[in-house]
Amino acid sequence: MDTITCIRTRRSIRKFTGKPVERKLLEQIVEAASYAPSWKNTQITRYIAVDDPVLKEKIASECCDDHNAAIIRSAPLLVATAMVEKRSGYERDGSFSTEKKDGWQMYDCGCAGQTFCLAAHELGVGTVIMGIFNIEKASQLLEVPEGQLICSLIAAGYPDGEASVPKKKTVSDLLTWK
């Protein structure tokens, strides 16, 4: 699949079949996502894969609203993206490089998350990125290492049905020339 087709056909998938995502396939997706751009090539994004049904249920019931909990319960795989803190957007002396301060770390983790989702789509795996969850509780349940912060949860699996194409803004709504 070419890049433009991949971008145009990727959808947020919220219902999955029960078929598990093979570990080797997830490794391929993460390897592709490692090519996402990052601040000074810091590559701060980390991935925590959860296929244990008990842990997935704990995250769903203790960290999420009903909507995201249902998505997690439907997915055979949950991937938390985490970022190594205090690297992206920082100088070696610990000072901020720009007025965006530590905002670059979310930007980098977001680029990696979208690259992950596009690679998954290319390989037949559906995904949806979720940002509404209790970060502190999820971090405890996932035993996130000190110095890392969870950025998002990505439900992943084989799509159960076709997702519709959401309405998109026009180029004239999005682009300004000066």
TrEMBL record:
<comment type="similarity">
    <text>Belongs to the nitroreductase family.</text>
</comment>
<dbReference type="Pfam" id="PF00881">
    <property type="entry name" value="Nitroreductase"/>
</dbReference>
<dbReference type="GO" id="GO:0016491">
    <property type="term" value="F:oxidoreductase activity"/>
</dbReference>
<dbReference type="InterPro" id="IPR000415">
    <property type="entry name" value="Nitroreductase-like"/>
</dbReference>
<dbReference type="InterPro" id="IPR029479">
    <property type="entry name" value="Nitroreductase"/>
</dbReference>
<keyword id="KW-0560">Oxidoreductase</keyword>
<protein>
    <submittedName>
        <fullName>Nitroreductase</fullName>
    </submittedName>
</protein>
<feature type="domain" description="Nitroreductase">
    <location>
        <begin position="7"/>
        <end position="158"/>
    </location>
</feature>
